[in-house]
């Protein structure tokens, strides 16, 4: 796996950074968190998307629905709080200021932290990129760019903490960022891309194991590849929007 530092990732570099074991939680606490989740039914189940505890920006058709409070929010926020504090500490130790990302129309804060179970069918593929503005452009007519991001270049990254894995799945990251030219490869569902978008570039493969905690580049094309046997990942995830010129970041999911 290609070695990369946190600083290189924050400045738009290609790769994946795996943190030391138990950076977020000791093993006993991971198991307790997993038990707490499994005692509660999913708070959202989306057609064609992974079920989850919490809410993810890309799964809602409007920003208003995404920001609307639900009865399960307090439970999810309590489980997320300690993980988020550790993530913020990691970033602040590197001189990154973490601020709140808000919707300018309602003044509400974007949600931070999501637990989801991702089913990985055998021999499957899901080539895509993740970007706040792209997700909003294709699916949310009421989206207004948060004022904190106006006229700024920013990098989007993804913190993932694997709580439980069943069988093997491969995360593949391609050394190509999304660009306007990539649009000719977009599929009809608007979130996946044809393999031709990355047919001529290098890639790295990573097989996450239970307890792994890592940071990866989201605006580079990436895929979750199913193997011969179906699998699933249960993980905690947070997006990071980072403006290098300000050394300031915003967490959301």
Summarize the structure in words.
With 253 residues, this protein is of the alpha+beta class. The protein has one domain (6-252): Sandwich (Jelly Rolls), CATH 2.60.120. Helices cover 20% and strands 28% of the residues. It is built from five helices and eleven strands; from the N terminus they run αβαβααββαβββββββ. It has helices spanning 6-10, 27-38, 63-67, 73-92, 132-139, and strands at residues 16-18, 52-54, 97-99, 114-120, 155-166, 169-177, 203-206, 213-217, 220-226, 231-243, 248-252. Strands 1, 2, 3, 4, 5, 8, 10 and 11 form an eight-stranded mixed beta sheet that branches. A hairpin with a 4-residue loop joins strand 10 and strand 11 (248-252). The model has no long low-confidence stretch (mean pLDDT 92).
Keywords, please?
253 residues, alpha+beta, 11 strands, 8-stranded mixed β-sheet, Jelly Rolls, 3-stranded antiparallel β-sheet, single chain, 5 helices
Summarize the helices and strands and which ones pair or pack.
Elements: H1 6-10, E1 16-18, H2 27-38, E2 52-54, H3 63-67, H4 73-92, E3 97-99, E4 114-120, H5 132-139, E5 155-166, E6 169-177, E7 203-206, E8 213-217, E9 220-226, E10 231-243, E11 248-252
Parallel strand pairs: 3-11
Antiparallel strand pairs: 1-8, 2-4, 4-10, 5-8, 5-10, 6-7, 6-9, 10-11
Spans with pLDDT under 50 lasting ≥5 residues? none
- In CATH terms, what is the architecture? Sandwich
CATH class: Mainly Beta
Q: Which class best fits the helix and strand makeup? A: alpha+beta
Describe the structure concisely for a colleague.
It contains five helices and eleven strands. The protein is α+β, with helices and mostly antiparallel strands. The strands form two sheets. Strands 1, 2, 3, 4, 5, 8, 10 and 11 form an eight-stranded mixed beta sheet that branches. Strands 7-6-9 form a three-stranded antiparallel beta sheet, with no helix packed on it.
């Amino acid at each position: 796996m290609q070695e990369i530092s946190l600083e290189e990732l924050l400045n738009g570099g290609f790769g994946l950074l795996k943190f030391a074991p138990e950076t977020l939680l000791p093993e006993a606490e991971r198991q307790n968190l997993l038990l707490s989740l499994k005692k509660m039914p999913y708070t959202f189940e989306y057609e064609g998307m992974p079920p989850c505890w919490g809410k993810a920006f890309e799964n809602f058709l409007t920003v208003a629905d995404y920001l609307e409070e639900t009865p399960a929010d307090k439970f999810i926020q309590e489980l997320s709080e300690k993980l988020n504090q550790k993530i913020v500490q990691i970033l602040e130790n590197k001189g990154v200021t973490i601020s709140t990302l808000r919707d300018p129309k309602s003044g509400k804060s974007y949600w931070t932290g999501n637990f989801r179970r991702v089913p990985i069918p055998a021999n499957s593929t899901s080539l895509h990129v993740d970007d706040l503005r792209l997700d909003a452009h294709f699916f949310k007519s009421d989206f207004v760019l948060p004022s904190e991001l106006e006229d700024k270049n920013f990098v989007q990254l993804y913190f993932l903490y694997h709580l439980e894995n069943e069988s093997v799945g491969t995360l593949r990251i391609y050394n190509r960022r999304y660009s306007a030219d990539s649009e000719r490869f977009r599929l009809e569902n608007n979130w996946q891309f044809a393999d031709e978008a990355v047919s001529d570039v290098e890639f790295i493969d990573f097989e996450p194991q239970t307890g792994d905690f890592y940071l990866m580049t989201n605006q580079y094309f990436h895929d979750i590849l199913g193997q011969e046997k179906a699998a699933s990942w249960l993980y905690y995830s947070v997006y990071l929007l980072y403006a290098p010129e300000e050394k300031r970041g915003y967490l959301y999911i």
